[in-house]
Write a structure and sequence with these properties.
- The chain is mainly β.
- 8% of the residues lie in helices and 48% in strands.
- It has a 5-stranded mixed sheet with strand order 2-9-8-4-5, with no helix packed on it. Strands 1-3-7-6 form a 4-stranded antiparallel sheet, with no helix packed on it.
- A hairpin with a 4-residue loop joins strand 8 and strand 9.
- The chain is globular and about 45 Å long.
Length: 131
């Protein structure tokens, strides 16, 4: 299994969030309305998950979805953090040109701390309707 690693080297006492992006997969071709999914946890409670494409803000993902796979993968982590760590966003790919793009996912915790939890390169191909 993949385990994301985050190095936080600043003096900020805030503990960073961490997580993973499930979809899209690296360099996956997508089209139409596509489900961006993943999970995020933070000891200081994640309150929102933001999505950016090519550096531009896209929107807030639905956060707090059931995530039994996170609980199974990290049984030592508090259940209150892992039980509902999933996120979901319906991405309308027609808002971007066909070609390679970069998705970045950032969280904000209860105290306002913001953490980038991952990025993913993917390809939009609405011309050929890959899905």
């Amino acid at each position: 299994a993949q385990i994301p690693v985050i190095f936080d080297c600043n003096d900020d006492p805030d503990r960073p969030s961490w997580g993973d992006i499930y979809t899209p997969e690296h360099m996956e071709s997508i089209s139409g309305t596509y489900a961006v999914t993943g999970w995020a946890i933070d000891y200081d409670r994640v309150v929102e998950v933001e999505l950016y494409i090519d550096g531009m803000w896209v929107g807030f993902a639905d956060f707090g979805l059931p995530s039994p796979e996170v609980t199974d993968a990290f049984p030592w982590y508090p259940l209150s953090q892992t039980r509902n760590a999933g996120f979901y966003y319906d991405l309308d790919t027609t808002n971007w040109t066909d070609g390679e793009h970069l998705l970045v996912v950032r969280t904000r915790d209860w105290w306002g701390g913001k953490t980038f939890i991952g990025e993913r390169s993917f390809i939009i191909d609405n011309l050929n309707k890959v899905q």
